[in-house]
Design a protein that fits this description.
Two copies of one chain form a homodimer. The first copy, chain A, is α/β, with parallel strands linked by helices. The first copy, chain A, is built from ten helices and 13 strands. In chain A, helix 1 packs parallel to helix 8 and helix 8 runs antiparallel to helix 9. At the A-B interface, helix 7, strand 13, helix 9 and helix 10 of A face helix 7, strand 13, helix 9 and helix 10 of B.
Chain lengths: 304, 304
C-alpha cells in the first residue's frame, strides 16, 4: 500500500504585489507530497534535485512520511529553479526565469519498493516521463491521476494524448481544460476529455471552486471566499495532494468519496495561499484541517 | 400582502456570437416580474412604457399575476430601448444603443393598493427614484432589496449611498461589489457594503455561482454548469425575481430560507440564458423549476 507521487522538487523565487521571496523550496512534488502527507503514509516520491538542495528538507520530508529514496540527487548539478511574478489580481503571472538544470536529465526510475502503489499522482511534468513511470508499475494501481499544463499541449501533444489513455483521472484548471478540449463550456470540455481517456476529471477554478466529473455526473465544490490571497504558488498541487491523500487514506474510489476528496483538496489549497510557498503546510495540524473542512460544509450547505 | 417590483419595461435588441434579435421585450421589471410570478402573486409592478409597447404583453403580465396598474403608459412616446452585443466569452458586452425615451421622465407614483407591500424589489434604476419609491411606502416592509450598477456609482454616488441606508439587501454582481466597496476580495467588499446599510448582500458571479452574506456568515451557491449560454440578458434580474418571489411566497427571512431563495434564483437564471430574452420564462412551468432545483441539490451535495 502506498501513494506514488511524481513531480519536481525545486527552488522558486516568487514576487507578489505585496512582497517577494529569495529562493525558497518549491516544486509540484514538494507541494503534492506535503499536502498528501497529512492524510496518508507512506508517500513514495519520485523526483530529481541537484547537490545544492538542502538535505534537511529531504529529511523533513522523511519525518512527514514522504519516502525520498526515489529522489535522485545529481552531484555537482543545480536543482530546477523557477521564478515568477504575480499580477495585481493574483490570477495571472509572468514567468521570469525557468532554469531546468537537473530537470533536463530527469529520467525517473522507480525503486523496487515503489513499483506496486495503489494510488498514483503524476504531477505536471513531460508526458513522456509520465508514461515512463506508468510503464514501470508492476500491476495496475487502483487509481492513476495526472496533472498537465498548456506547455505540454503545445510542445508534446502526441505524448500527452498517449498518457491520457493510460490514466483514470485528470486534474487541470479551467484554462487548461479549455485548451486541451477546444471547448469553452466546461461541461463540453469535460465530455471531450473523457473521450481522450480519463473517466474522471477535476477542473479547478481557483477562487470559484472546482468541478468533478464522472460520466455525465457533476459535482460543484465551493472555494472558501478568502480575505486575502497571499501567494497562489502551489495551490493547485496542494489541492491534488489533499485530494489523492484523502482518497488513499480512505481507499475508496466511489463518486461520493471523491466528492469528499475534492473538499479536502480545496481545504488544503485554502491554507496554501495564506503564506509564501509551502510555509503554511509546515504549520498546520490535522485538527486545523478538520476545522477548515467544517467551514466548507457550512459554506455550501442548504436544504430545499 | 404583495411583492412590489420597480424596474424598466422596455425593448431590447441583442446580438450574441451565435445570433441576433430584432426588438424584443426586455427590461429589469419584465425579467424580475416574470421570474417572481412563478412563486408569488400578486406582483405589483411599477414602471413606464411608451404607447409603442404592446398591450398584449401587459395583458400577458396580468395573466401571470403581475398587476400593471403601476405601469404608466405615456401616449405618443417611445419605450426605453437598449441594444447590446455580447463578446465571444458571453461574460462581457458592448452597449450599442441606449434610447432612454420615456425613462427620462420616469417619476414613479405608487397606486394606493401598492403602498403597503411586504416585500420590495427595486430593480436597477436611478437611486433617486429608488428613494422616491421607498418614501411612498406606508409602513416598513419585511424586506427591501435593491439592485444597482456601475453607472450609478459613477453618476449619482450620493443618492446611491442614501438609498443603501434604506434597504435590507443588495443584489449585485462581483464587479459591481468591487467597484462599490473599493475592495477586490469579495469578503472584504461585502463587509464594506454592509457598513453602508444593507445587512444582507448577494454577490452574483455568473457561471461561478453566487455568494450570500449576512453578518459574518457566508453561503456559496453553485451555478449549474451549462453546455451553452445562449443569451445572458436578464439573467441577473431573473435571479433577483426568483429570489424575491421565493422569499415572498415563504414569508420567511431567515438565513436558512434565504439560502433556499438563492438556489431558486440561480435555477431561474439557468433557464433564462437558454433562449433569447425572456422567451424561456414563457415556456417553463413550476414542475420544470422544481426539477432544476433538484439538479442544484445534487450538484452541490456532499457529506463529510
Amino acid at each position: 500500500m502506498s501513494l506514488l507521487v511524481v513531480g519536481t522538487v525545486a527552488f522558486d523565487a516568487i514576487e507578489t504585489p505585496f512582497q517577494k521571496t529569495e529562493k525558497i523550496i518549491g516544486g509540484s512534488g514538494t507541494y503534492i507530497g506535503l499536502s498528501a502527507s497529512f492524510f496518508y503514509k507512506p508517500i513514495h516520491l519520485v523526483s530529481i534535485v541537484g547537490s545544492d538542495f538542502p538535505t534537511e528538507t529531504l529529511q523533513y520530508f522523511n519525518r512527514k512520511g514522504i519516502d525520498t529514496e526515489g529522489v535522485e540527487v545529481k552531484k555537482g548539478k543545480k536543482s530546477f529553479f523557477w521564478s515568477g511574478k504575480y499580477h495585481m489580481d493574483m490570477n495571472s503571472r509572468d514567468t521570469l526565469v525557468t532554469d531546468l538544470n537537473v530537470l533536463a536529465e530527469f529520467d525517473p526510475v522507480l525503486p523496487e519498493k515503489y513499483s506496486n502503489p495503489e494510488f498514483v499522482m503524476l504531477g505536471n511534468i513531460d508526458p513522456h516521463l509520465q508514461i515512463k513511470v506508468i510503464q514501470q508499475l508492476r500491476k495496475r494501481p487502483k487509481l492513476i491521476a495526472m496533472d498537465t499544463m498548456n506547455f505540454w499541449m503545445d510542445q508534446t501533444p502526441e505524448a500527452l494524448k498517449e498518457v491520457l489513455t493510460m490514466v483514470d483521472l485528470l486534474i487541470v484548471n479551467d484554462e487548461e481544460a479549455r485548451q486541451l478540449s477546444g471547448e469553452y463550456s466546461l461541461i463540453k470540455a469535460a465530455r471531450v476529455i473523457q473521450k481522450m481517456g480519463p473517466k474522471q476529471i477535476v477542473i479547478k477554478k481557483g477562487e470559484h471552486g472546482a468541478l468533478l466529473f464522472q460520466g455525465a455526473t457533476v459535482f460543484f465544490a465551493p472555494a472558501l471566499p478568502l480575505e486575502e490571497v497571499f501567494d497562489p504558488t502551489g495551490a493547485g498541487d496542494v489541492f491534488a495532494g489533499g485530494f489523492m491523500g484523502y482518497l488513499s487514506s480512505t481507499n475508496n474510489r466511489s463518486f461520493t468519496n471523491m466528492k469528499r476528496a475534492v473538499v479536502y483538496g480545496s481545504a488544503m489549497a485554502s491554507f496554501c495561499v495564506e503564506k509564501f510557498g509551502p510555509q503554511r503546510l509546515t504549520e498546520i495540524r490535522r485538527p486545523t484541517i478538520q476545522k477548515r473542512v467544517s467551514e466548507f460544509v457550512d459554506l455550501a450547505k442548504f436544504n430545499i
